[in-house]
Amino acid sequence: MRTTTVIIGAGHSGLAMSRCLSERSIDHVVLERSEVANSWRTERWDSLRLLTPNWQCRLPGYAYDGDDPDGFMTMPEVVDFITNYAKVIAAPVQSGTTVTSLRHADDGYRVVTDQGEWRCQTVVIATGAFNVPQVPACADALSPSITTMTPMEYRNPEQLGEGGVMVVGASATGVQIAAEIQRSGREVTLAVGEHVRGPRVYRAKDIQWWMEAAGVLDERYDEVDDIVRARRVPSMQLAGTPERATFDLNALSSIGVKLIGRLAGIDGNRAQFSGSLRNKCELADLKLGRLLKTIDEWATANGLDDSTPQEFAPTRVEASPPLELDFARGEIETIIWATGFRPDYSWLDVKILDGKGMVRHDGGIVDSPGMYLIGSPFLRRRKSSFIDGARTDAQELIVDLAAYLDRGDSAAKG
């Protein structure tokens, strides 16, 4: 089978590219191993909501139009939003099709699937950046008496034992899970490494509103000093709740969550932790101050000083957090590894991965002619990992893809 472009993945990013291709009358197919919005359906815990407000759910030619713009979609609502989008744009999705190999061909690329092969001139990788949980190597040394799981396996507190829980990782996922489990009556210990602190509401508006208005979310990948590091920055400690609650470490400690330093190692029933907890929290407080200063300066410059700047108390850290825990004492029964994710590129037979196993690209333009990437953190803008980020990334990537095809046509005619 032949087509001009193959998109691999039918999540919101792949569908955004599909819409942009259709607008330019470029024939294509979207290959999806399961069904549209599969990861939103199957790899999220029960209570999760989007951490971006509904008004920020925008894709090319489509946007949220409900009666709760400042609310936050539940996962079933996200699935409906993306599924409806696929129908509205008439995306040529071939579901139940697993790509097993992507390799070069004389005329472009050969995409091998369990339902046959496709030949194409261009390929868009839209499989997502959060396919495989990153569990630290030291987990292998953990005593088998401790139950472990990842956020992809966690659904709700009822699936856990009655004992204490240690959540490792304090980004958006870790703080949300830690808070939910603590409120279920279980004692939670949160191992904290590098994190990004953020309030849900600032100066009477959602923090996302301010970051968009002040241009923070639109900062481009070629405007930062170290894009490699920027792409590894943890997600802000935000959650989308009806109460618009803040989920920073002070909020967690106020409900009883115990804070401990970054996990440094495990030996059977003993776990060692870094003594850098206070330093990590001070750094997060400093970065929060810088963000709010940027917002305040923008508000003043744009005549929005009718709301008063807020100050947030420094993160509370006990004087001497424990540097070791003995699991044999029975205080910890379960560990949840909220330590991040990585993409799965095991099907790639094109040499485009760097030493960390990530696709080499320049703002989504992959280091292989006619190949593109979308759905990766800070792909072209700071907001790339959000639904709205896929909209702007796709609208820019299509310009390069179309130009590439035009150059190929010109060469053939010449």
Walk me through the topology.
Layout: E1 5-8, H1 12-23, E2 28-31, H2 38-42, E3 58-59, E4 62-63, H3 75-88, E5 93-94, E6 99-105, E7 108-113, E8 116-120, E9 122-125, E10 132-133, E11 147-149, E12 165-168, H4 172-183, E13 188-191, E14 201-202, E15 205-206, H5 207-213, H6 227-230, H7 249-254, E16 258-260, E17 263-267, E18 270-273, H8 277-301, E19 324-326, E20 334-337, E21 341-342, E22 361-362, E23 365-366, E24 371-373, H9 387-413
Parallel strand pairs: 1-2, 1-9, 2-5, 9-24, 11-20, 12-13, 12-20, 13-16
Antiparallel strand pairs: 3-4, 6-7, 7-8, 10-21, 14-15, 17-18, 18-19, 22-23
Helix pairs in contact: 1-9
Largest sheet: 5 strands, parallel
Number of domains: 2
Strand content: 15-25%
| Average pLDDT | 96
- What is the number of helices? 9
- Structural class of the secondary elements? alpha/beta
In angstroms, what is the radius of gyration?
Answer: 23 Å
Unreliable stretches covering 5 or more consecutive residues: none
CATH topology of the largest domain: FAD/NAD(P)-binding domain
CATH superfamily of the largest domain: FAD/NAD(P)-binding domain
- State the distance separating the first and last CA atoms: 26 Å
Query: Could you say which overall geometry the principal axes of the C-alpha atoms support?
Result: globular
Largest sheet strand order = 5-2-1-9-24
CATH architecture of the largest domain: 3-Layer(bba) Sandwich
Helical residue percent band: 25-40%
CATH class categorisation of the largest domain = Alpha Beta
Q: Report the strand count.
A: 24
